[in-house]
């Protein structure tokens, strides 16, 4: 192994002179990943072969790609409770590892301090820290893409990821990530944002747990993340063993936090306290001067003592549009001077506002059935910017946006709320094959992958839908 590394270092020295491509350094079980990282130069790749590596890695600021050859199911870095497992540098790329056994003060699995690494296809499992059970970010813009955060814990906040922005700009991206069964004794069972505004896209928050607030995401300070196409399911904030208040089964927003939530679903999240009337916001709790806005979100089956969907207190102000709040009780409770502006939404028990309705939304797995009053009931002035719904279909079908996270009518070219052979006959001019766009808006109903053409892939999807 040593000779292999020496060879790689030699190649690199030569490459620096000749402009040759960066080196690849192979690591096999029994060898040290850290030694390979130390031997690597900027731009090199360290390729790790299947096995369990009992060590902790520090990139020392080096822009090196650390990649596994066969993915996280067979390649583990185990910190063995010795400290933070991976400390990133700026430009670090980490791809395809299971990171476990972390134990730290800030970030059990990973520490990001003044760095903007790219972390892809990694699994953070069973790490623990005082703050940021799996990951702690302090200054930087890390990208987490396709990662899973599972069974991480923290004594404080952010059992999955803690974005801590008090020392400088902190944010980054969580894209196509899954947070499940993480537990915070404080705030943010999955994610804690403090003065941080990451971009959160297509993430699933499932069965995370917090004691104080925000079992999914807890936004504090001035944290205003954009949260798009995300699913919050069965997260739970509870104080079952004390008489304290608890807030926000899925999300809590405090101070001046003003997240923007688009195309998100909130289902069977809850806030639960040992004593009555202490648990607020089965979906979201908004306090202080928080000003969250929700567009095309669906709430179903969430539960709390007060505000089954939304609890607003202090001088919080929440804006809701094109959404469905249907949890079975008083959906929105305002306390103090808190206010809620709700329009073009279906709210159980009713709520005053332009375009609001109060009618059974006729949901099936949170999607609108053909007799739903939420179809084409959204803001008529809403103009999507090329967006899609939570299924990835065109956001506006049949001329007007629907309520909730899912648009009704894929495949229904003639907008009669039935998908049948007539839709393919009427829409035959849409089938122009690949790369022949652009097409008219009506053809979006036949573009199942929303790639702006209607081809054989879409035809196959259409036929599958017909047969279902
Ligand atoms: Ca529509
Ligand atoms: Ca039709
Ligand atoms: Ca298509």
The total domain count is 2
Secondary structural class: mainly beta
Please state roughly what percent of the residues sit in beta strands, choosing from under 5%, 5-15%, 15-25%, 25-35%, 35-45% or over 45%.
25-35%
Strands ordered across the widest β-sheet: 1-2-5-8-12-16-20-24-28-33-38-41-44
Low-confidence stretches: 1-19
Distance between the termini: 56 Å
Q: What does the main sheet amount to?
A: 13 strands, parallel
What is the helix tally? 4
Bound molecules: calcium ion
Shape: globular
List keywords for this structure.
12-stranded parallel beta sheet; 2 domains; single chain; disordered N terminus; binds calcium ion; 4 helices; mainly beta
Give a summary of the structure in a few sentences.
The chain is mainly beta and 468 residues long.
Explain what you see.
There is one protein chain. With 468 residues, the protein is mainly beta. Helices cover 9% and strands 32% of the residues. It folds into 2 domains: 30-364; 410-468. It contains 4 helices and 47 strands. A 13-stranded parallel β-sheet has the order 1-2-5-8-12-16-20-24-28-33-38-41-44. It is globular.
List the helices and strands and how they pair.
Layout: H1 2-18, E1 24-27, H2 33-39, E2 45-48, E3 51-53, E4 57-58, E5 65-68, E6 75-78, E7 86-87, E8 93-95, E9 98-100, E10 103-106, E11 110-113, E12 118-120, E13 123-125, E14 128-131, E15 135-138, E16 143-145, E17 148-150, E18 153-154, E19 161-164, E20 173-175, E21 178-180, E22 183-184, E23 191-194, E24 199-201, E25 204-206, E26 209-210, E27 217-220, E28 226-228, E29 231-233, E30 236-239, E31 246-247, E32 251-253, E33 260-262, E34 265-267, E35 270-273, E36 279-280, E37 284-286, E38 293-295, E39 298-300, E40 310-312, E41 317-321, E42 324-326, E43 332-334, E44 339-343, E45 346-347, E46 363-364, E47 367-368, H3 421-426, H4 456-467
Parallel strand pairs: 1-2, 2-5, 3-6, 4-7, 5-8, 6-9, 7-11, 8-12, 9-13, 10-14, 11-15, 12-16, 13-17, 14-18, 15-19, 16-20, 17-21, 18-22, 19-23, 20-24, 21-25, 22-26, 23-27, 24-28, 25-29, 26-30, 27-32, 28-33, 29-34, 30-35, 31-36, 32-37, 33-38, 34-39, 37-40, 38-41, 39-42, 40-43, 41-44, 42-45
Antiparallel strand pairs: 46-47
């Amino acid at each position: 192994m040593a000779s292999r590394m020496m060879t790689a270092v030699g190649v690199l020295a030569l490459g620096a002179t000749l402009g040759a491509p960066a080196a690849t350094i192979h690591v096999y079980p029994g060898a040290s990943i850290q030694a390979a990282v130390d031997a690597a130069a900027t731009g090199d790749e360290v390729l790790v072969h299947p096995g369990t590596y009992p060590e902790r890695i520090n990139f020392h600021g080096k822009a090196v790609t650390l990649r596994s050859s066969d993915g996280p199911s067979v390649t583990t870095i185990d910190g063995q409770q010795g400290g933070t497992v991976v400390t990133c540098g700026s430009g670090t790329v980490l791809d395809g590892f299971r990171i476990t056994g972390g134990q730290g003060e800030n970030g059990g699995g990973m520490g990001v301090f003044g760095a903007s690494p790219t972390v892809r296809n990694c699994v953070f499992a069973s790490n623990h820290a005082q703050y940021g059970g799996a990951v702690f970010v302090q200054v930087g813009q890390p990208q987490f893409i396709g990662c899973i955060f599972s069974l991480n814990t923290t004594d404080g906040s952010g059992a999955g990821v803690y974005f801590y922005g008090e020392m400088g700009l902190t944010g980054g991206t969580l894209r196509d990530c899954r947070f499940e069964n993480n537990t915070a004794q404080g705030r943010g069972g999955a994610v804690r944002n403090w003065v941080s505004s990451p971009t959160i896209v297509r993430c699933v928050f499932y069965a995370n747990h917090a004691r104080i607030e925000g079992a999914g995401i807890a936004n504090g300070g001035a944290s205003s993340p954009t949260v798009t196409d995300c699913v919050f399911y069965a997260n739970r904030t509870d104080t079952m063993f004390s008489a304290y208040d608890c807030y926000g089964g899925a999300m809590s927003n405090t101070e001046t936090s003003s997240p923007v939530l688009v195309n998100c679903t909130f289902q069977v999240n809850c806030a639960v306290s040992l004593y009555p009337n202490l648990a607020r916001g089965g979906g979201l709790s908004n306090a202080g001067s928080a000003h969250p806005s929700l567009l095309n979100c669906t709430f179903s089956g969430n539960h709390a003592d007060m505000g089954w969907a939304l609890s607003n207190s202090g001088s919080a102000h929440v804006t809701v549009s094109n959404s469905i709040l249907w949890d079975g009780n008083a959906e929105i409770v305002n306390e103090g001077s808190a206010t809620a502006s709700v329009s073009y939404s279906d709210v159980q028990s009713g709520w005053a506002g332009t375009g609001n309705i109060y009618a059974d939304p006729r949901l099936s797995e949170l999607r609108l059935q053909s007799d739903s009053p939420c179809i084409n009931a959204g803001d008529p002035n809403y103009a999507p910017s090329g967006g899609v719904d939570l299924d990835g279909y065109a956001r506006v079908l049949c001329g007007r946006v629907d309520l909730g996270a899912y648009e009704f009518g894929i495949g229904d070219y003639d907008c009669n709320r039935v998908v049948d052979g007539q839709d393919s006959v009427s829409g035959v001019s849409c089938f122009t094959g690949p790369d022949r766009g652009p097409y008219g808006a009506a053809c979006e109903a036949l573009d199942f992958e929303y790639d702006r053409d209607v081809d054989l892939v879409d035809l196959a999807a259409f036929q599958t839908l017909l047969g279902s």
